[in-house]
Structure formats: C-alpha cells, structure tokens
Design goal:
Dna Ligase, domain 1, 3 domains, two-stranded antiparallel ribbon, 14 helices
Length: about 350
C-alpha cells in the first residue's frame, strides 16, 4: 500500500512570500535604476548645455601643441566656456579622442554645447586669418602683410621665401620667391608655418598660369623665370589693364633690339628695396644713374630677378603681348592712367606736350 505525501503548507506560503519579496525588490531596483538613468541624462543634458556666459560674438580659445585633454578641460571650465570639466573629460574618455584634439586657435560660439566644443577641436576647425595680397607688392611688402594678418612673423616669412630647398622644390632659379607669390585673397590659420604659407602662394601662381597661359607648362624654369621678371615690370608700369599687353610688346621689341628697357619701375625698386628709402614722388636724372643690376637704364636686358608679384593681367600680357612697332610709352594722364605709345625717341619726347595738367 503506497504512502501519501503532503506538501508543507507553511513552506509553500513562505516560498511565495519570498518570491513576491524578490519580485518587488527587483521592481524597486528597476524603478530606481530607471529614475537614476533619467536623472543622469537630465544632468548630462544640463551640464552639456552652453553656459550662457560666452560673448554673443564668440570667444577665441587657443590649444597649445602637446596640451592634454585634462588641461584643456580645466581651462575651458575656468573661462566659463563649458559647465563641467568632468563631463568634457568623460566625453573624451568614452570616445577615446584625447589624442585627436588638434592644437590651434578656435572661435567658440556662444551656442556651442560641451560636446560640440570637443568636436570643434577634433575636426580642427580653427580660426582663419584673411590675407589680401594686392598686385605689384614686393617680397618685403608681402612679408609685412602676412605679419599684420597674424599669420606669421615677417622675418620668418622672408626666411622661408629664401629657403633654397623650398625654391628647388618648385624649380625656381632665383635666390628668393620674389615674383612667385601670387596676388590673391588667402585664408590661413593663425601662426601657420611660414614654409607652408610661401609654398601655398607659389602653388597658386602655377595653378593660375595653367588657366592664363597653358603654354607656360612647356617652358623650362629659366624661360619661365624670364617671363615672371618681365611680368613684374609690366605690373608696375601699367595703370589701365587694356594697355598691359601693348606695354609687354614694347618691352619685347626693345629686348629683341638689344635696347635697354629703361623702366622707371626698376629704378624705384632699387631705391625702395635695395637702398631702403621711401617711394620717391618723382625720379631725377641722378636716380637713373644708380648702380644696380636692377637699374634697366644702365643695363640692357632683363634685371636678375622679378621686382614684385605680378597679377593675372601682367602675366597674361607677357604671354600674349600685343604686336606693334612701338619702342616707347609715356604717361600722359595721371588721373586715368593713359599712356602715349610711340615708335621713335623724338616722338616720345614730343608726347610730353600731350600730358594732361593735374
């Protein structure tokens, strides 16, 4: 006969009570965890938000080379750019981006969150300095403009423009980049490497030559150098763009006949760049006798190097000169910039009577 087994009612009741207790505890922990997660998200959202203390026009913030993310976070918090130094470091850690922060100067807008500031540094979207190089500026003048724009020191820029290795990389036969720094509007980051700035301007020249004069690519470096030299003289002589090609033709005529170019612009170069004197209001006969290889009143042929940075008009003019029999030109209207072109020296002298009185 089989024995009957009976469950202990107290044991069953105790088990159900324990299960219910555990279930309630899990539910409470879940609710607490959920509430904690929500609170954490709210806190992170608050701490990630803009501080409201950044100038509406934004602020400049510089990260030094080799600076750690911890130091950057502290300085950001000290300047009230971010709400929480810890949150910035937390974002860096979870993203493993500490080594991705790029040094440089940044403009931080007032509406940027902490995470957006970090992304700004990682993307390297630095403040760009605007640099305008007008046509006809000398190397020294370009260096001064670069320094005034806050891009590089003028002496460092001049040193880079005379760097033999850099010049050789572009097959520039001269001892400086004079004439090869294309006049244009540029944007560089603050404290750019001078070699990079010089190289960029030179590349811009060759890029523009591809459009202005594709035949330039067929010239060797010496032939191209001669064209750059002549273009630099045309640049400083013409005032009306329509006359540039005709002036280039005059200079070619003189070169072909072995006649000195007799360009006043080269004399001015001697006075300002070699002698370091102010730009003269007018030239005197004694100036035309100055001893310098750049003085085209003393020597026939081209000077040894460009005298300035020629722009598109002058460059195009020397590659596409206007044919003529002219050997001379004279400024007859200082207001409009108009010149009178002539074939003979006597006609050139007589043209002085055509000058418009100021």
């Amino acid at each position: 006969m089989k024995k009957k087994s009976f469950d202990n009612p107290n044991k069953t009741k105790h088990g159900r009570h324990l299960f219910r207790l555990i279930a309630n505890l899990i539910a409470v922990l879940f609710i607490l965890g959920f509430a904690l997660a929500i609170a954490s998200l709210v806190l992170i959202k608050y701490l990630d938000a803009p501080t409201g203390r950044v100038d509406p026009e934004g602020v400049l913030f510089t990260i030094q080379s080799g600076e750690s993310g911890t130091v950057t976070a502290r300085r950001l918090a000290e300047r009230d750019i971010i709400r929480s130094e810890l949150l910035f470091k937390f974002f860096i850690r979870i993203s493993r981006l500490d080594s991705s922060i790029k040094s440089g100067t940044y403009r931080i807008d007032s509406e940027l969150s902490t995470n957006a500031v970090l992304r700004l540094f990682i993307d390297g979207r630095q403040v760009l300095k605007r640099l305008v190089i007008p046509e006809g500026r000398t190397l020294r003048q370009v260096a001064n403009l670069v320094e005034q724009a806050g891009i590089s020191g003028s002496e460092a820029f001049l040193s880079a423009a005379r760097n033999p290795e850099l010049l050789a990389s572009f097959a520039i036969p001269g001892d400086s980049a004079e004439g090869y720094l294309f006049p244009d509007t540029y944007y560089f980051v603050e404290n750019s490497a001078p070699d990079d700035v010089v190289a960029f301007m030179i590349r811009q020249l060759f890029s523009r030559l591809q459009d202005l004069a594709p035949e330039a690519a067929l010239l060797d470096s010496s032939e191209l150098h001669d064209r750059i030299i002549l273009a630099s003289i045309v640049e400083r002589e013409y005032r009306i763009p329509e006359e540039a090609a005709l002036m280039a033709g005059v200079f070619y005529n003189r070169l072909n006949r072995g006649i000195g170019l007799q360009s006043c612009a080269t004399v001015v170069y001697v006075i300002t760049e070699e002698l370091g004197k102010p730009h003269p209001a007018r030239l005197f006969n004694r100036d035309l006798e100055l001893f310098s290889p750049f003085n085209t009143y003393r020597w026939a042929g081209l000077p040894p190097a460009p005298i300035c940075s020629p722009g598109s008009v002058a460059l195009k003019a020397v590659f596409q000169p206007e044919p003529s029999r002219y050997l001379y030109f004279r400024l007859i209207d200082g207001t409009s910039g108009k010149h009178y072109f002539s074939e003979t020296f006597d006609e050139h002298i007589d043209a002085a009577s055509l000058a418009v009185k100021p």
